[in-house]
Design brief:
32% strand; 153 residues; mainly beta; five-stranded mixed sheet; four-stranded antiparallel sheet
């Protein structure tokens, strides 16, 4: 399947750009440097295919491969419908971004990491970090925003 950009948005505060791309076999969220197309972080969102075994991953000659069975949740295979609504949610300071599908967060990228947090990961590894609900709520101002999270900023 052909790679296509599903969604792209620049934050007016941070001047960072968020891009969501479905690569046909997997889908990823990307975050750029301010005022630059250079990607500094990514977040695996879902597979469009059954998760391959680790021994099969070499067939995907891409920088955005599908997550393998040892990292992907059993429900990580997802095929979007035309009626699905994809949107970005930015943190108040514009440094973090989440991807929501039908108002449900699927993944997010906080500041200072190269790999984001995904609801479809069962463990942290090459595809990113497993979901951290507390961090999500703090970053996206859903449980009281704090300008300083010790050891994080």
């Amino acid at each position: 399947m052909k790679k296509s950009t599903v969604l792209c948005e620049k934050n007016p505060l941070s001047n960072k750009e968020a891009r969501f791309e479905d690569h046909g076999h997997s889908a990823w969220l990307y975050l750029t440097k301010p005022n630059s197309p250079v990607v500094v972080a990514d977040c695996w969102i879902y597979n469009r295919i059954k998760a391959p075994k680790e021994s099969e991953i070499s067939q995907f000659r891409t920088s955005s491969p599908p997550a393998v069975t040892s990292y992907a949740h059993a429900h990580a295979e997802f095929t979007p419908l035309q009626s699905d609504i994809f949107e970005f949610k930015w943190s108040p300071d514009g440094r973090s971004v989440a991807l929501l599908i039908n108002s449900i967060p699927f993944g997010f990228i906080p500041p200072g990491v190269q790999r984001g947090y995904s609801k479809h990961l069962i463990k942290t590894g090459p595809w990113g970090h497993e979901w951290d609900e507390t961090l999500y709520l703090i970053l996206f101002n859903e449980s009281g925003w704090s300008e300083s999270i010790p050891g994080f900023f």
